[in-house]
Specification:
alpha+beta, Pnp Oxidase, Chain A, Four Helix Bundle (Hemerythrin (Met), subunit A), 2 domains, seven-stranded antiparallel beta sheet, 12 strands, about 45% helix
Length: about 325
């Protein structure tokens, strides 16, 4: 008998997709005025050798969706492992398109699409077809020209972080080089600032997502649910990071969360469940959310500091 299907968990689905390492590219084109347009993408994939076809996808709610739907040509600029700053620049929602290209060296390629200098490979494409699929549009391009640049490793994204960074953080945690007190102190400093930003930049949808996360966490209290609870706890801070809408601090926060994930996984494996299930922290998380919803900057920061003081006291 076929076992019944489990309820579909969108958050876990996203986490599972993150287990597949992907390259990072900047997709470029020009708008109706001939001005350069670019965005970061990790959905680039090859399709066919004959004819030479590639594809990538973009969210329907992207600010650039109409530009790419109307363009006749685009370029795929594959980034090297030392171009993570370019990835962050073109992924930023706080920068205008003019600011994204400010200081970036590029030349005009096929159809006028910008070709970013110093990439490891660049594919110049004509638009072959477009397909709306769920909440994305899949763009398929015919490669008209291509070139390979310097012989370096590609920038790789894995489990929400650049793989180079994730690997080094994993090694730090595994070798015991991160003292628990230092990690708590660093997280307190970073998230104290993030909740302040979240009070100003967060939307009702952002706060609703955090509330759903907290309610889910409260359901995971059995000993067999501790790994799920740990994932929900990490997700709580990831959601706060998203709510702050600050791309630079998001990279720092993700680094801290990566170390935390490795630490928590080790604790679960060692059956140190008392370090994961801490009922006294539950009302503190709700207090942080309550103060963010009220746009109480100082109150939210104070609630977050109290949260980390409690963690530090428990770890001592």
């Amino acid at each position: 008998m076929t076992p019944p299907l489990q309820p579909f968990d969108a958050k876990e689905f996203r986490r599972a997709l993150g287990c597949f390492p992907t390259g990072v590219a900047v997709i470029t084109t020009t708008d109706s005025n001939g001005d350069p347009v670019g965005l970061t993408c990790n959905s680039f994939s090859s399709v066919s050798l004959e004819p030479p076809l590639v594809l990538w996808s973009l969210r329907l709610n992207s600010k650039s969706i109409d530009i790419f739907r109307q363009t006749r040509a685009f370029a795929i600029n594959v980034l090297a492992n030392d171009q993570d700053s370019l990835s962050g620049r073109f992924a930023s929602s706080s920068k205008s398109m003019r600011e994204k290209f400010d200081g970036v060296a590029f030349t005009a390629g096929y159809g006028g699409a910008p070709l970013v200098d110093a990439c490891i490979a660049r594919f110049q494409c004509s638009m072959y077809s477009q397909h709306e699929a769920g909440d994305h549009v899949v763009f398929m391009g015919r490669v008209e020209q291509f070139d390979q640049g310097r012989e370096d490793n590609a920038l790789v994204f894995y489990k929400g972080a650049y793989m180079m960074l994730a690997k080094s953080l994993r090694e730090l945690a595994a070798k015991g080089r991160v003292a628990p007190g230092e990690l708590v102190q660093a997280r307190s400093a970073v998230y104290g600032n993030l909740v302040r930003m979240a009070c100003e930049a967060g939307t009702d949808a952002d706060f609703d997502a955090i509330e759903r996360n907290l309610r889910e966490m409260e359901r995971h209290i059995a000993s067999g649910d501790m790994l799920k609870r740990a994932h929900s706890a990490v997700a709580f801070f990831q959601l706060i990071t998203q709510t702050a809408h600050n791309e630079i601090l998001a990279v720092v926060a993700q680094s801290l969360n990566t170390i935390l994930q490795f630490t928590v996984t080790d604790r679960v494996a060692a059956e140190q469940l008392h370090t994961i299930y801490r009922p006294e922290l539950t009302p503190m998380r709700w207090q942080v959310l309550d103060r963010m919803r009220a746009r109480d900057v100082d109150g939210a920061a104070g609630a977050m500091q109290q949260y980390f003081r409690q963690i530090a006291a428990t770890d001592d």
